[in-house]
Amino acid sequence: MTTSRRDALTLAAGLAAAPSLAAAAPDLLPSGAQAIAGKALTRIAFGSCAKESKDQPIWEAVLAAKPDLFIFLGDNVYLDTRDPNEMRAKYAQLAAKPGFQKLRATTPILAVWDDHDYGENDAGSEYPIKEEARKIFCDFWGEAAASPRRSRDGIYSAYLFGPADKRIQIILPDLRFNRSEILPLDLGGKSYAVWEKELAAAGKPVPGPYARNPELKASMLGEEQWRWLEAQLRLPADIRILASSLQVIADFPGWEAWINYAQDHQRLIETIRKTKANGLICLSGDTHYGEISRLDANVPYPLWDFTSSGLTEVWHVLPPNALRVGEAYRARNFGLLEVSWNKMGGPKLKVDIRGEQGQVALSQSIDVASLRMGSL
Question: What is the model's pTM?
């Protein structure tokens, strides 16, 4: 047994033995990531929206960045089918991509799904073959037969990496399996295609076709996942990464996002505050453009969201986002999070959105000390 594997099992056993933390014991990593469980991670790459039918040259730039770990944030394939055999065939297309093969051979991977690898565009709890989709997802990404991702009410998961003084927690919520109905925006009787063209022609930002759901019980996560998430946020960690398939902070882009579910959006902020979950940043996908968002009003400390999308996909218009920092990057991209574990002054972060050739398009440095209660 490797040292890192032994460390991971010891950590999980210790947490499980503590009654107050038993519900929040971290999941056992997929087999490809177990070797780095005890490592102090310094380079984490991330991305989303990789159409399996397209060439994927961006993997060369990802590999050149030499990440310790890669996080797939959803739409990792575009299944868009209710036929399990077609799902498997599309995953096989991804598996055959030379760049993806190199990534898988050299870099541990974590993954969560969004709508297209869940199985259907913008689908939620109503999707009729979500159990079959879950099995195919777990099989492809190397989840053990006993993995709780195969039996929970969704594929949500959380992991801990590194020794006690350099611990990173990575949380991957499932925003599909339990999601309430999404509400359409009132477009004045026009089709979205016509409405979109009119706004674009007028030089205005073009939101997506969805509105906020004001219902108290409307949720993407569901109650069981919310209880699990709160327990996870109570675990000790130096840095926390909420790896969300949808944008967490963006202010009403009109497409699917946390802001469309008002109760979830506010509950996340209150749960961070209640659990005193310092050191949290968000990584997100879905949009087909890259951007950085920052929220510093009515939050326990500044909340950052780094959106990387897509690995192959680019959106033709830019939706609004009042919390956008600087410009959006409308070209194929991936993200890279770098951690400096300073002995004096605590850890520092640098997060890049990088283009297809590895060039830095957007960048933000963050002192983790600023991500603490009362830092505003």
Answer: 0.93
